[in-house]
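TL;DR need structure tokens for one chain.
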Amino acid sequence: MTTTGETARASQPTSGEPEPGLPGRRWLIFAIVSIGLFMASIDQTIVATALPAIERELRSGINWSSWTITVYALGQVIAMPMAGKISDMYGRKKVFMVSAAVFTVASLCCGFAPNIGFLLVARFIQALGGGAFMPSATGIVSDHFGRQRDRAVGMFTSIFPIGGIVGPVLGGLFVSYWSWRGIFLINVPIGILLIGLTARFIPSSVTRPASRIDLAGIVLLAGLLVTGMFGITYLGSGSASFASPVFLGSEAAAVLLGWLFVRHSKRGPAPFVPYQLLRGHGFGLMNVINYLNGAAALGFAALVPLYAEERYGIDALGAGTLLTARAVGMIAIAGAATFALRRTGYRWPMIAGFLTLACGLVLMAIPAPFSPYGWLSIGAAVTGLGMGMSMPASNNASLQLAPEQIAAITGLRGMFRQAGAITAVAVTTAVLARSAHPGITQAYVFLVFAAILLLLVPLVRLVPEHRGTW
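>> reply
TL;DR here they are.
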């Protein structure tokens, strides 16, 4: 039974300041929620090195086994905006623990998947749990760090590049010395530990009133991405063609759902994505840039280990460390680019970053003039430098246009980038499934990605410029 004192405390609004006696434990709280973020970030890249092994054991084409990457991104696109509102309604600790439980159980199911269909369903559920970590973890840290909440939340950005470094290497180790199933099963004991630590050391948070969750908008967006992905992936099947009823029907459904999504955003009372953030001044342009940048940068990253294995015969562990080179390059320059942003503005860092990223893609696409591993490592590091230059600027671009809607703009940015990555991986793997020489074909795909980045340069010159604080 709830006591009168507990009821009174629950009814009081949260000030955001640490509770009495809590400052000594807040870094423990930060460490606990970081475990969840770290697991989610690792699982974004750890599967990339295991695609050939999954394809062989489950007897699936590369166009379907690659869905283990794209369906994870799709689940995160759906989960992240919902988790924030649900955390307010039911409490951050509860949502974080449920997220950890969903992620852990789904990881166990992935590890024992008997076929590709079962694996993809389990992987999607895993992504729902992983996608809910960030909003609930941000809320927990914000509640307990008081005036230092901005720095604590800012430290989350360092977790994801580290996960990008560890994930591919860990995936390569499991594939080389055990099984691809180990990349999922390792999450189970960590997830159980995370649930226990959360229950023991993280205090419960009060609930807050929240607006209605736009389920219709989320369903329309998910349907748009799934039907579009399915049609493209189907083209990789043996006798499929552009005239296939399955392909035409899937893409027609995607177009219809896309129209309904935009219409809903324009007319809905509390839409998942406000219409003015889709086409308003500066926003429409940045949405296009984020989509194409996501396709070229994030989509490319998911395919690097596969490329190294298919074209040069590099083993899974070596192929995975190429993404490590990319992450190191990104970390090396991102900090400096962030601090220089108030002087440089948005346009020039994005232009320089996109051009550098395009150079790295070209380096990886051309035949290696010396050791293939060494050459690909250089190319991957150059792409990381390009991302480190461009990401801080593209993350901030347009935020000053509507500071009161930062959360919505940030979610929209991530949605378009992930959608671009999903499209790139689906199209590329469909092409590779029908190619007699997948490694060479993927080199041409990298050149197409480089061309896309070059086409972005004139668009960037139209982005609303801003210097200083906002």
